[in-house]
Write a structure and sequence with these properties.
nine-stranded antiparallel sheet, Beta-galactosidase, Chain A, domain 5, 7-stranded beta/alpha barrel, alpha+beta, 38 strands, single chain
Length: about 725
């Protein structure tokens, strides 16, 4: 008796990758014209459009005359779109943008009459636990996945239930063109492999990256069925498969990040790191500052914020934020990031200006300021503020020429040359304030607690010292060495491939950058690399600003904490909550190179959102999403310079993951500014410090004491992140 195979026609659509968007758009018109023509002729019952709506929107921009056909086929369940706006990564984007991606995609889908959804994650390079939590949050109870799955951990069954979501693992992936080429023997072997993990029926995707739809599919499938020995293909759709198939509860892992069956391409965590840094800062500004502030001040700029989300999320398509596309694509990514930055800056100034106009007490003394503390976990003790005047008891950081913001937003004035004035960036310590509140706070006279020399910087909580050209960090209980290393990289945008030995960077000199009553800064100089270490009076962490003038190609630069014991586990933040990973600390990838076909070598490289913890030490980062473990070394990547999308001679991956197209701008021959922090404690310490590290507050010069003081919200106990989604408050709790 032949096994039934539910097959669905599809194409996986990368909006921009080894060609730019406009070039791919022309191919999209050819591909999707045929889809509509075939559906119209009744040659196939169904087509699945890759789980995202952005490709359909791109198509309709040029084919407005076919809108009614699209609506008809979706309404009659011949065509499926959504739920995502774009097919996005789940490790390099935060939870609010993950939810927003679903919000936008589901809203557009419903406008096109799509009502039922599958969390379609067929090609993203590993699937975080947060991806399933996001689907749960949006009440999507079906998912299709591929990369990152080890069948041993799901009881060797491709159908299982995770987080109450019926999940199907595409055991042989979404990429299948055996039917197109009429390769019956190859197709039979392919189905045999799927059958190992499936009961009756099987699920078969028919399609591939940017591949035209199988034409006259019904007729061709009928002929193929005559030749298949053990299977009968039924042209159907994945929705019907989910109704027919059996799903069992398993102890599925929290995340799917195993590369024993499929490539997960971990080099994408560090490719084009300059864009990941921009992404992290924009995400934080948007989701932790601007949207909550607008929400509480009347939602005046909601449509502007929606524009920023849509612009940002276009960059979250996995070949975009991953850094593995041609240079022209990444220049488009940069342009979208710049749009976001400009829009966020404008909204921030307008929100402050609107608030000041309504609540500021004119003529009052300037020893107080208004503070929106947007942290759910900690009091703000020190603030940076820009004003056109000097503040008493504040530490001056810089002076620049510019206009007062008030003047820029007065529609009855035009700024002229005479209005340019000094703008002072200052640092101030402030009085007590509550979490997630607005308070009028007093500026305090600081009591200097930071000690600094040309070789050390410390306060009562943490210390950095240089001895014998080595850097040591201590919390006065334990001491770790910090070093920086460089190594040659023969890999590509997808995979790091080390060559030779790690070379330790030598300290050339160190000196006091500045010494202040509130903050001091020590500078350490290496070749083509300056490291500024700043410390505030009341801070529990050292903040590092790395200015790297990269002049080398094909190499990787890392910051490394040498801990006292070998690292057996790490705790890192996922988009939602933390992920604990067990570590094989003795694993050395260089001893196993080159990889044997068809495998990708395992690595000790992992993704993080903002921090990783091991053995009581913590790295906080802004957009440095990759960490690595070897023995007792906790490493974060500051820069990885490579020059091709996919190197066919990569020794850590046996088969190319894309075309060998040169991308010289991925060599990052530019100045890279990277920020990270080091402190001591556990993951709860890390969460409580993140808001201070990111400066999640808005400070307004002026006196507002008689006007308004209020609690923005009551934060539930043990909450570590707060966000806004569709006008509702979203809390993410500690594990």
């Amino acid at each position: 008796m032949k096994k039934q195979v539910y097959a669905y026609l599809h194409t996986h659509w990368d909006r921009e990758w080894y060609r730019d968007k406009e070039d791919f758009n022309l191919r999209l018109l050819d591909v999707f014209d045929i889809v509509l023509d075939e559906l119209k002729k009744g040659n196939t019952p169904f087509f699945y459009f890759d789980g995202q709506v952005i490709a359909l929107l791109d198509y309709l921009k040029y084919r407005k005359d076919r809108l009614q056909e699209v609506l008809y086929f979706i309404k009659n369940k011949n065509l499926a779109i959504g739920p995502y706006y774009v097919s996005a990564d789940s490790y390099l984007v935060n939870f609010c943008t993950m939810l927003k991606n679903l919000d936008i995609g589901m809203k557009i889908s419903s406008d096109f009459y799509q009502k039922d959804f599958i969390g379609y994650m067929s090609d993203i390079f590993g699937i975080s636990k947060s991806a399933f939590l996001a689907l749960n949050y949006k009440k999507i109870n079906k998912a299709l996945i591929w990369r990152g799955v080890n069948p041993k951990f799901i009881n060797n069954k491709c159908n299982f239930i995770k987080e109450n979501i019926k999940t199907t693992w595409l055991a042989q992936g979404y990429f299948n063109d055996f039917v197109h080429s009429n390769n019956i023997e190859g197709l039979e072997r392919y189905l045999d492999k799927i059958s190992k993990f499936s009961s009756n029926p099987l699920l078969l995707p028919i399609g591939a990256d940017h591949l035209g739809m199988l034409q006259n599919a019904g007729e061709k499938i009928a002929k193929i069925n005559e030749k298949l020995k053990n299977y009968e293909i039924i042209l159907s759709n994945p929705f019907e498969y989910f109704e027919k198939a059996e799903f069992t509860n398993t102890n599925a892992p929290e995340e799917f990040l195993d590369n024993s069956e499929t490539y997960i391409l971990s080099g994408v965590y560090s490719a084009r790191v300059y864009q990941k840094i921009k992404n992290a800062n924009i995400q934080n500004q948007l989701t932790k500052i601007i949207e909550p502030l607008d929400f509480y001040l009347g939602k005046k700029y909601s449509s502007n914020i929606e524009f920023i989300y849509k612009t940002l999320i276009k960059n979250h398509a996995h070949d975009g934020i991953y850094g593995c596309s041609i240079d022209s694509v990444h220049r488009a990514v940069d342009a979208r990031f710049e749009k976001c930055e400009n829009a966020l800056s404008a909204i921030s100034k307008r929100l402050i200006g609107d608030f000041k106009q309504k609540y500021e007490i004119k003529g009052e003394t300037k020893d107080a300021i208004g503070l929106f503390n947007l942290s759910g976990t900690s009091e703000v003790k020190t603030v940076e503020i820009k004003t056109p005047y000097k503040i008493k008891n504040a530490q001056l950081l810089s002076i620049n020429k510019g206009f007062e913001d008030n003047l820029l937003y007065d529609i009855y004035k035009i700024p002229v040359t005479e209005d340019i004035t000094n703008i002072y960036t200052q640092l101030a310590e402030i009085s007590t304030n509550d979490c997630f509140s607005f308070n009028t706070v007093k500026i305090k006279k600081p009591a200097k607690k930071v000690k600094i020399t040309n070789k050390s910087i410390e306060n009562k909580k943490i210390k950095l010292e240089i001895k014998n050209k080595k850097i040591f960090i201590t919390d006065f209980k334990k001491t770790f060495e910090l070093k920086f290393t460089d190594i040659k990289d023969e890999g590509d945008s997808y995979n790091f491939s080390p060559k030779g030995k790690y070379k330790k960077l030598e300290i050339i000199k160190s000196k006091i950058n500045f010494e202040g009553e509130i903050r001091s800064c020590l500078s350490i100089f290496f070749k083509d690399f300056k490291l500024d270490i700043s410390l505030d009076n009341n801070s529990n962490f050292l903040k590092f600003s790395a200015k790297i003038k990269n002049k080398q190609k094909n190499h990787k630069l890392q910051a490394i904490l040498i801990l006292n014991d070998n690292i057996t586990k790490t705790i890192s933040d996922d988009a939602y909550g933390t992920i604990t990973r067990k570590i094989d600390f003795n694993y050395d990838i260089q001893k196993l190179m080159p990889a044997k076909r068809p495998f990708e070598l395992k690595t000790n490289i992992y993704p993080m959102q903002n921090f990783t913890c091991a053995n009581g030490a913590i790295f906080l980062t802004k957009g440095l999403n990759e960490y690595e473990i070897y023995k007792n070394e906790l490493r974060i990547c500051l820069l990885r310079a490579i020059g091709t999308i996919s190197n066919p001679k990569n020794k850590t991956r046996a088969i190319p993951a894309g075309p060998d197209l040169k991308c010289p701008e991925a060599q990052c021959l530019r100045e890279i500014n990277a920020e990270f922090a080091i402190l001591f404690g556990n993951y709860k310490t890390a969460y409580k410090t993140l808001d201070e590290f990111y400066q999640n507050y808005v400070v307004i010069d002026g006196n507002f004491e008689k006007a308004i003081n209020f609690k923005l919200d009551e934060i539930p106990e043990n909450t570590f992140i707060y966000g806004i989604n569709k006008g509702e408050k979203v809390y993410y709790k500690l594990d």
